[in-house]
Structure of RING-type domain-containing protein:
Amino acid sequence: MAQQGIQLDREKLSCSICLDLLKDPVTIPCGHSYCMNCIESCWDEEAPKQTHSCPQCRQTFTPRPALVKNTLLADLHLPEFHLDLKLNCSRWSSS
Ligand SMILES: [Zn+2]
Ligand SMILES: [Zn+2]
């Protein structure tokens, strides 16, 4: 059910691998989200073991799940980035 709504807290928009804001966010089958690059390289390392696990909840996936870009999360970032941009711009122009 989609009754929980979208929480805009930074934790939800952060990648637990690089601890930065999600870049090209993808959501894996357990529901956790990572940067496309982070989870790809994480799973590349695990590839010889034939397991692909979630770094957060340790759920394992076999075969490797297809990564689908989470456009919802990607869209959610935009206001924050624009806000940062604006703040930076006004700081620069006033100095
Ligand atoms: Zn990341
Ligand atoms: Zn997980």
Summary: Residues 71-94 form the longest helix (24 residues). The mean pLDDT is 78. The longest strand covers residues 25-27.
